[in-house]
Design goal:
Transferase(Phosphotransferase), domain 1; 2 domains; three-stranded mixed β-sheet; 15 strands; elongated; Ser-Thr/Tyr_kinase_cat_dom; transmembrane; Prot_kinase_dom
């Protein structure tokens, strides 16, 4: 019995020891595998990060826009890219999914070693680039001596990575190599609205086209205010930040100053462009959606009058408002290059709407949704009129053919739309 019990004890002890050894071995294997996978993930994250310092500002004028689904030389990160701030906030990591990474080498080649400059902003130079895929893009480069642009670079990458609308400039990608920070957009062949209003290189924009542009901008801002989650305030609406594509459709550009709505007084420095700044924002330093509405109102008057705030636009408007009471009679400020080719009622309706937008009391201003609803019927009415005229023209042509057969000729006149022009430099930014 004694021998049997001692044998049993020894057997059990050996079994326990073997079990413990196996458990320890398994634990070491698991820890090794976890460590190995973390090293792999860490190296892949390092390859996809952008070092960015903290500070910023700027806006670009005449660059580009983007469309979705175009093929280009880029690197796509499955889980997005990581960006961090150097200095005391170096560990503050934020993720922006869906942004595409271009290589410096490819952009250098596409811009012929950065010799194809098409614009210059406080952010830095803008280059036209032809990628080997055939895609035309605009490359917005942060100047190496810029003290303000890097925060805006980060803001645009983060915001435009999640904002997509046909009336917003959609970011194609970015590049952060060799100490350079660049934003890449699809090239916008018709440049900025400002270039068409203030450059003699372009023919004057017609009244109809200006109303279309106004509605496009309003829809873009409506999406920022009511469609984006959380809502976004642009903070720098002006004619040089409105870009036009090949069909003259307008898109809102330059989101470097954009932020989520902030209603806290004294929580932010005043940023924007002189002449477009909401007076209430200047006094309270609290920017809201209604701050964008004010800037949009100034832009509407800019489209109507063909002059910008640096040419005394708002003084001009206030003087006219004293005589018109803000509702009618706005013809006295209309751009002379229209040469009388505009609908007086439409002009007064748009000007009255603009005057509501620039009300000194923000709560009395309409929302961007109200503005879209006010402008949409004007364009619908224009469309129905054109359709009706087209039907009449077709009927007239048929009659002419019948009459021609009897030896008579009736001339058929054609209506042509003309387009407007202007010339001035971009207003200074603050």
């Amino acid at each position: 019995m004694k021998g049997i019990s001692w044998g049993l004890i020894i057997g059990i002890s050996i079994g326990v020891i073997i079990g413990v050894l196996l458990a320890i071995s398994a634990l070491f294997c698991i820890r090794y595998r976890r460590k190995h996978s973390q090293i792999g993930n860490s190296s892949s994250r390092r390859a996809a990060t952008i070092p960015i310092r903290a500070n910023g500002v700027d806006s670009c004028t005449i660059l580009s826009d983007s469309t979705i689904g175009q093929e280009s030389p880029k690197t796509s990160e499955e889980n997005g890219i990581s960006l961090w701030l150097e200095g005391p906030k170096r560990k503050n990591v934020v993720s922006a999914s869906g942004i595409l990474k271009y290589s410096y080498k490819d952009l250098q080649k596409a811009t012929y070693n950065f010799t194809t400059e098409i614009g210059q902003g406080a952010f830095g130079p803008v280059y036209k680039a032809q990628m080997y895929t055939g895609e035309t893009v605009a490359v917005k480069v942060l100047a190496t001596n810029s003290k303000q642009g890097e925060k805006e670079f980060l803001t645009e990458v983060l915001l435009l990575g999640r904002l997509h609308h046909r009336n917003l400039v959609n970011l194609v990608g970015y590049c952060a190599e060799k100490g350079q920070h660049m934003l890449i957009y699809v090239y916008m062949s018709n440049g900025s609205l400002a270039s068409h209003l203030y450059s003699e290189k372009h023919e004057p924009l017609s009244w109809d086209l200006r109303v279309c542009i106004a509605l496009d901008v309003a829809r873009g801002l409506e999406y920022l205010h009511d469609g984006a989650v959380p809502p976004i305030v642009h903070r720098d609406i002006k004619s040089s930040n409105i870009l036009l594509d090949h069909s003259m459709r307008a898109r809102v550009a330059d989101f470097g100053l954009s932020r989520e709505e902030m209603v806290n007084p004294h929580a932010s420095n005043i940023r924007g462009t002189f002449g477009y700044l909401d007076p209430e924002y200047v006094s309270s330093r609290a920017f809201t959606k209604k701050s964008d509405v004010y800037s949009y109102g100034v832009l509407l008057f800019e489209l109507i009058a063909g002059r910008n705030p640096q040419q005394g636009l708002m003084e001009y408007v206030e003087l006219a408002a004293m005589n018109t009471e803000g509702r009618a009679g706005w013809e006295e400020i209309v751009d002379s290059r229209f040469d009388g080719k505009f609908d007086v009622q439409e002009l007064n309706d748009v000007a009255a709407l603009a005057y509501k937008c620039v009300n000194s009391v923000s709560r009395k201003r309409p929302s961007m949704r109200d503005i879209v609803q006010a402008l949409s019927p004007i364009l619908k009415l224009k469309h129905s009129r054109k359709h009706h005229k087209g039907a009449l023209s077709a009927t007239t042509e048929e009659i002419s053919i019948d009459v021609d057969q009897s030896g008579m000729q009736i001339p058929i006149t054609e209506l042509r739309r003309e387009e407007p022009m202007d010339s001035i430099t971009d207003p200074p930014e603050v």
